[in-house]
Structure formats: C-alpha cells, structure tokens
Design goal:
It is a lipid-anchor; GPI-anchor. GO terms for molecular function: metallocarboxypeptidase activity; zinc ion binding. The protein is built from 10 helices and 12 strands. Helix 3 (93-108) crosses helix 10 (306-328) and helix 7 (236-254) packs antiparallel against helix 10 (306-328). It has a domain at 43-130 and 192-341: Aminopeptidase (3-Layer(aba) Sandwich), CATH 3.40.630. A hairpin with a 5-residue loop joins strand 3 and strand 4. It has 350 residues and is an alpha/beta fold.
Length: 350
C-alpha cells in the first residue's frame, strides 16, 4: 500500500462525501507542488469546521506560502504546536509526512482519545512545504537540489540553504559564504523571503508556541538544540527525555532505530538552523526529525517505504504533542504529576 488518497487531489476531488474515510488508497509517491496546493485547498473545503488555510508569505520566485491551522472550536485560549516540512528541496519524504500528519489528525480526532484530548488545548499549525521554489526545481530539473532558488552574483549561482539562514549564531559554523555551496547561509540572517516569512510569523506567536517541529531526511535521528555549540540548553534533560520517549514509540511500530541527541554532538556542527533559532527565542521544545533511511537510498526513498515511514513518525510526533498537552494542561488528564503545579510561562527559557 502506498500513500492514502488524502494525498492525491484527483482522488479527493472525485469523492463527494465530506468524510475523508471514503477515499481509497491510490497514491504511493510524493506529490508535485501543484498537487499539494490543490490538496491544501481541498482539505480545508472538506473540513471547514476544523481546518483553515492561511497566507504566510511569498517565495523568492513569488510563489505563495500557505500553512494549515487545525483548530477545534473553543472558547478557551489554546496554545500552538508548529510543524514545517520541506525546508530542503530533495527531502521528499518530509512534505509527504506533513500531509500524512494532517490526514491522520482529521481522520481520527473523533475516535482517538489522545488526539481528541490534545485538540481541546492545542492548535496545530502545519507548513507542508517551506522551500517551494526548491521543491519544484527538484521535481523539474535536479532531483538532489537542496537549497532555495534565490539568485546571487548576478544570477551566476542560485539558492540559499534556508536551514542556515535563521538568526541563531548565523554564519558561525558549518556554513559557507560561497553561493555555489550547498550550505550557503545567505547574505545575512533572514536574508531570504522564505526564512523571513516563517521567522516573522513564529515571533508574532512565540508566547503561545510550546513546540517547534521541523521534518527532514535522512538519518533516522531526533535532534535537539544546539548545532552551533556543544553546551546544552537549560532544559536539556527534558528535551532528551521527551525525544527518547518519541523514538521509543517510533521504534515500536516497525523496529526502526533512531538516535537521539544534540546536532553538534551526534551529527555535525551547524549554525542558523530553524530549530536552534526557535529554542533561543523561547520555544521550550524544539526538534529536528531526520526520517528514513540511514543512507541505503538516502533522499530517494523507495515508494514502498513512504507509508511505514509516515506511520512510525506519526507515533513519535503524537508522543511529543501528548507530552506538551499533559505538561501544560494537566487538569484534562486523570493522572496528575508534579508538573500540574507549573504555570504556563510565555518564555520558559532563554
């Protein structure tokens, strides 16, 4: 079985029923960007009571960036979980997971007690493709393209690594100032329109965002801050414990092994990442997921691994979201713990 019909606009559009469950399995491969745009429009139309599509910004090539907000109507103030996919163009499994995540939430929120519980307190903000220009280029011209498509040096070279362009120790380590490099960090922090769009939005909501998740491939890792230093963040123990629980949940599905740790310690040093930046502005739980595999296929993951990858990753992500819900909204849970006395702070760490 491949990706379910929720990922294929042609299948959804043919389905007149509002229920997502009426869609058949009909896709086993990632979608082109035009299809993802169609999917976003259709998913909102079919689930207007829960899903809204919002303008986020424009790309270097003037394409529109949209995010989806999944929000159960409520009179109470809710907090936010942010998740973005596709910051690196060639990592096609990443946007596929964002779509799978949305599909799973919408199919199961009425019957899955965990999902229905955390939707009472948390809104989910999902950006299915952050690097739209690069993603399209990876489909049309160069399958292994990584960066954005912004022109530099009078159009003699193109693209910035958007995950080196955030304002967190920008340009200090693990980057290049040569625009032909795959890790070119741009002309300055937030020099790229895609980075600015995300950063400005996140900053405008930062007192309400409790968790920042960014989905990449490959390597089978859950990465914690920081990439630019081996000095651990103030809440490192919590970050590591939650990540280990998420990895254990993931492994429980198909036995896929994930490593957990800070980027600088278990991967490589880098600066200007969105994960590090989110943590430094006060978002307490900030993680990078590196999905399957460990290098056998690398970025070109076989179609028959898409669904199992999404299924196991869903378990990890919902483990993290469930932790956030229990920590900040303990009164909604039968089992109380010591965290129930903690108040919500706008800026838990610095």
């Amino acid at each position: 079985q491949g990706m379910v019909a929720i990922l294929s606009p042609s299948c959804i559009i043919k389905t007149r029923e509002r229920s997502l469950l009426s869609c058949r399995l009909c896709l086993s491969y990632p979608l082109r960007m035009t299809a993802i745009y169609q999917w976003m429009t259709q998913i909102q139309k079919n689930n207007s009571e829960l899903v809204t599509q919002h303008f986020l910004g424009k790309t270097s090539e003037n394409r529109t960036m949209y995010y989806l907000q999944i929000s159960q109507p409520s009179n109470k103030t809710k907090k936010i979980i942010w998740m973005d996919c596709g910051i690196h163009a060639r990592e096609w499994i990443s946007p596929a997971f964002c779509q799978w995540f949305v599909k799973e939430i919408l199919q199961n929120y009425k019957t899955d007690p965990k999902i229905s519980r955390f939707l009472q307190n948390l809104d989910l903000y999902v950006l299915p493709v952050l690097n739209i220009d690069g993603y399209i280029y990876s489909w049309e011209e160069d399958r292994l393209w990584r960066k954005s498509r912004s022109p530099y040096e009078n159009g003699t070279c193109y693209g910035t690594d958007l995950n080196r362009n955030f304002n967190s120790s920008w340009g200090s380590v693990g980057v290049s100032f040569n625009c032909s490099s795959d890790v070119f960090c741009g002309s300055g922090p937030e020099s790229e329109p895609e980075t600015r769009a995300v950063a400005q939005f996140i900053k405008s909501k930062k007192s309400d965002i409790l968790c920042y998740l960014t989905i990449h491939s490959y390597g089978q890792l859950i990465l914690t801050p920081y990439g630019s230093t081996t000095k651990p963040p103030s809440n490192n123990e919590e970050l590591m414990q939650v990540a280990k629980e998420a990895a254990a949940a993931l492994t429980g599905k198909y036995g896929t092994s994930y490593r957990v740790g800070s980027t600088a310690l278990i991967l490589y040093s880098n600066s200007g990442s969105s994960r590090d930046w989110a943590h430094t502005i006060g978002i307490p739980l900030s993680y990078t997921f590196e999905l399957r595999d460990t290098g056998t296929h690398g970025f070109i993951l076989p179609a028959n691994q898409i669904q199992p990858t999404c299924e196991e990753t869903m378990l990890a992500v919902t483990t993290i979201i469930d932790y956030v819900d229990k920590k900040y909204f303990p009164n909604g849970h039968v089992q109380r713990n010591l965290m129930s006395s903690m108040s919500i702070k706008a800026h838990p760490i610095k």
